[in-house]
Amino acid sequence: MDILDKIAQARPTFSKGQKRIADFITSHTDKAAFMTAAKMGATVGVSESTVVRFAYELGFSGYPELSRALQQVIKTQLTIVQRMAVTRDRIGEGDVLDKMLAYDIEKLRHTLEEISREDFNRSVDLIAGAKTVYVIGDRSAGSLAKFIDYYFGLMFSNVRLVHTSSTSELYEQLVRIGEGDVLIGISFPRYSTLTVKACRFAADAGAKVIAITDGEGSPLAKGAAALLAARSDMTSFVDSLVAPFSVVNALIAAVGLRKKDEVTRTFSRLEDIWSEYNVYQGPAPDAGLPKR
User: Fold this and answer.
1) pLDDT score of 99
2) Which of 60, 150, 210, 226 is a Cys-bridge partner for 119, taking CB atoms 3.0 to 4.6 Å apart?
3) Distance CA 240, CA 103 (A)
């Protein structure tokens, strides 16, 4: 039962003021999700303490937990057009750069505080010991999947990027997945149906699933052997992947350190190849020399 169902079920027991809060939340969920208790109280004409008691009445530990529950609802249900409207309300006409970077810094801080070190270490163990590592991320999460595939593909020979062009091709690419394999599934609201299906298919086949997603409420978390939760709270119609990318960076670094001898040999060979075939641009002949 999500928060809106809870409110509808409990509405007959509410006081007059609480019913006004309930009606506002139900009719304007996108706006209510990002309001402080004081602002919501002022908007509907009740005191801040009434709003806080309303949260307690619904079984939440406080108003911040109620606010997060509302944000979870809108993350999974709002269309791109509705998200544009939320962006205008939250950011307005002010300094977009300052506000967006501040929101991303906040997401990084919350992710650092909340991510499970146990699950992170388990993920490193699973990847380091896997027969084959499959990686899948659809839509905007595809950038994360390609990033992981690029670096793990340089480091190891047993990495496969799962393409998400169609459902039939998805299962064809996963037909050999099984015990001893690992699937890294990445998705954030609105969750990709193909990624959810891939994670379930892999788990049913006996593979271990590492879910990189926004928390335990994600459909990817169910049945996952490890959950790497990263904040991607909606601040605009553009998905913020700053915190997920940081988690992925840490994961790649940790796996590289775990298998440092193998990775060092591979990278030494790669450096020779890059140098021989001029893969990277070298310094200009007069770089650093004073101009005459």
Assistant:
1) 81
2) 226
3) 9
Residue 245 tokens, joined: 């990318």
Across all residues in the chain, what is the average pLDDT? Answer: 89
Across the beta sheet with 226-229, what order do the strands follow? 159-161, 133-137, 182-186, 208-213, 226-229
CA atoms within 13 A on the CB side of 15: 8
**d(Cα 135, Cα 185) in Å, to the nearest integer?**
6
**Selecting from 1.10.10.10, 3.40.50.700, 1.10.3720.10, 3.20.190.10, what CATH number does the domain 3-109 have?**
1.10.10.10
Q: Calculate helix-pair angle for 117-128, 242-258, nearest 10 degrees.
A: 50
- Three-state DSSP state, 291: coil
If we measure between CA atoms, which residue out of 135, 173, 169 comes closest to residue 155?
Answer: 135
- Domain residue extents for the chain: 3-109, 115-276
CB 82 within 8 A of CB 12: no
Question: SS3 helix, strand, coil % of the chain, rounded to 5?
Answer: 60, 10, 35
Coil, helix or strand at residue 133 = strand
Sorting pLDDT into bands at 50, 70 and 90, what band is 161? very high
For residue 284, give every residue at least 6 positions away whose Cβ sits within 8 Å of its Cβ, in sequence order, or none: none
- Reference 230, options 185, 188, 283, 169; nearest CA is 188
Looking at CATH, the fold of the domain delimited by 115-276 is given as Rossmann fold (3.40.50)
Determine phi and psi for 259, rounding to 5 degrees.
-115, 45
> pTM value?
0.76
Calculate mean pLDDT across residues 84-101. 71
